[in-house]
Amino acid sequence: MGSLQVINLLLVIVWARQDYVTTFLFQAVSLFTMLTEGEVIISKEGDEVSLPCNFILENFSKFHNPILWHKHQRGEVTRVNMGGNVLSPFRATKRLHLAFRESSPRYSLELSLSDISLQDSGNYSCVIRGPGNDVIGQVTHYIFVRAAVEKLFFMDYTKPGGQEVSSGGILTMTDGQPFQFACVSIGGYPPPDITIYADQDNITGLFTFERLTQLVGAKAMKLIVSEIVASNEMYTPSRADDGIRLKCHAEVVDAPLISCQATEAELGQRNAYIKCFIEAKPALKTIFWNLDAEGTSLIPGNIVNDMWTIVIVREKFLNPITDQDATHVDVHLYMRIVTEESFRDYVICAVNAIDASTQKVSLIQKAKKQETTIEVKRKQPVIRFVHRNNDSLDTQPLVEETKYSVTSSQSTGTASSWLVACVLLLTWLT
Ligand SMILES: *[C@@H]1O[C@H](CO)[C@@H](O)[C@H](O)[C@H]1NC(C)=O
Ligand SMILES: *[C@@H]1O[C@H](CO)[C@@H](O)[C@H](O)[C@H]1NC(C)=O
Ligand SMILES: *[C@@H]1O[C@H](CO)[C@@H](O)[C@H](O)[C@H]1NC(C)=O
Ligand SMILES: *[C@@H]1O[C@H](CO)[C@@H](O)[C@H](O)[C@H]1NC(C)=O
């Protein structure tokens, strides 16, 4: 590793210029090198996460060089360990484990968390101290345990005390009169990106954002709840705005979500395909298939063992407003001719900036039909549309609300004053 080379180099210099370099070594290095770099870890509930803390320290002693892990949750710092023991309140969870390894002059105290829960979100730092209790090195890892957006709604501040308006509701504004309202998102971790649209127009720029975080629960095991209020104090509607659909969209980053459906085919069938649907935010970087147990891989554009794959950006089904990137795609795995060996599992792998996801999908032999049957009807994979306004799970492939109510405008007593009705359409992706 780089740091070892540095040390070797220093030792060479020591050998060459002993008198001068000894002091240099002593001061600048005391022969300590942190080998671990801080990582940002975005995990989901149930995951297992290992936090490394590897370093080189000449003359390391457990007594004089305590290695301490700390958990930080917004200014609240809690010590995790004393030597190799996990301290309370972490001990009671039985989910935190420490592993000390030594191979002088290299040492490591790895902290691992199993069955990750939302309360585990936080910054974890590993601090190594010297004889005078001075910090001689440290590294911090950032754990984000993903949480879905719990609630998303508009607030109408022109109503006394403010009134919540949920999806399908109506905001009533008066032509020419400033209107004060906001889109509020509660939950979601890491905090979601909020985009606000008036029909197709992205009007996010007209809103001011306030981002709050609340910590709920017992010390060191707090739930971090993010709340985002995007408000517009002076939205001045005109007659042209009548009937506009306002939409607030909240998205939490995640590894790609893949949904595939086992497909039936017949022996000898030509150009049979398996279909998967992938949703990714941030957008996909790579898609490939593992075709067999040997790990033969197939990327779009190649033909391997008479198989090829096609990626179709699913514009038709996209939210018409947010279709700018290929975050919703159909992936087809074609095989020129179905043989006995074709009936097996295939693995698709999709990668975005957050993580890689894999999904196994099988080609199943269709039950024998009568000899006279010529036409082969393939089962079409089912595309699931899920109403996700009240959703706490994140296993569904597509999040798209398709219903919204339509309102009619009404003129009030005076001719110049119009009621402007806006239909709210709220969706979010997790
Ligand atoms: C390590 O210990 C040896 C022997 O006790 C000593 O000579 C040396 O100076 C020490 N090195 C450092 C960097 O403290
Ligand atoms: C983690 O550290 C970063 C950078 O110092 C800070 O902005 C963030 O609030 C910390 N997160 C928590 C949960 O304490
Ligand atoms: C919407 O507008 C905001 C602010 O102008 C911009 O940061 C954001 O990237 C836009 N989003 C989309 C999806 O165009
Ligand atoms: C969301 O769904 C759960 C269970 O289906 C229900 O208990 C809860 O009241 C719902 N929340 C809202 C805001 O509709």
UniProtKB/TrEMBL annotation:
GO terms for molecular function: cell adhesion molecule binding. It is a single-pass type I membrane protein. It is found in: Membrane. Coiled coil: none annotated. Residues 45-140 form the Ig-like domain. It comes from the Eukaryota. InterPro entries: Cell_adhesion_signaling, Ig-like_dom, Ig-like_dom_sf, Ig-like_fold, Ig_sub, Ig_V-set. Its main location: membrane. This is Ig-like domain-containing protein.
